[in-house]
Design goal:
- The protein has about 120 residues and is mainly beta.
- It is about 5% helix and about 50% strand.
- The strands form 2 sheets. Strands 2, 4, 5, 6, 9, 10 and 11 form a 7-stranded mixed β-sheet that branches.
- A hairpin with a 6-residue loop joins strand 4 and strand 5.
- The protein is globular, with a radius of gyration of 13 Å.
- The termini are far apart.
């Protein structure tokens, strides 16, 4: 079992930055690929970014490339999402996710989800 707890969301003006954090508890965090998803009001949950267990491979949605950076610290059981140049369309609940399968994670069916953290971007 892996428990995921996100933090770092909030209200920010367009152009600003936030750093989201996901703290994982449980066993073998370093064995899991980690990812971030988001869900805006009235929309389906969508993939944002993922990082492999060893940090070698990262993937990003086209809409966030160049603005978002995912990273992890296996010693601290933490995955981060640095969000820069925020836009109003980035407003959503951001979810942390984990799975031993990178493909499962990226298609949005991971084994574990966090409870989400709200990011609101004002124009």
């Amino acid at each position: 079992q892996v428990q995921l707890v996100e933090s770092g969301g909030g209200l920010v003006q367009a152009g600003g930055s936030l750093r989201l954090s996901c703290a994982a508890s449980g066993r073998s965090f370093s064995a899991y690929h980690m990812g971030w998803f988001r869900q805006a009001p009235g929309k389906e949950r969508e993939f944002v970014a993922s990082i492999s267990w060893n940090s070698i491979t990262t993937y990003y949605a086209d809409s966030v490339k160049g603005r978002f950076t995912i990273s992890r610290d296996n010693a601290k059981n933490t995955v981060l999402l640095q969000i820069n140049s925020l836009k109003p369309e980035d407003t959503a609940v951001y979810y942390c996710a984990a799975d031993r399968s990178e493909s499962q994670l990226r298609v949005g069916v991971p084994s574990y989800w966090g409870q989400g953290t709200q990011v609101t971007v004002s124009s």
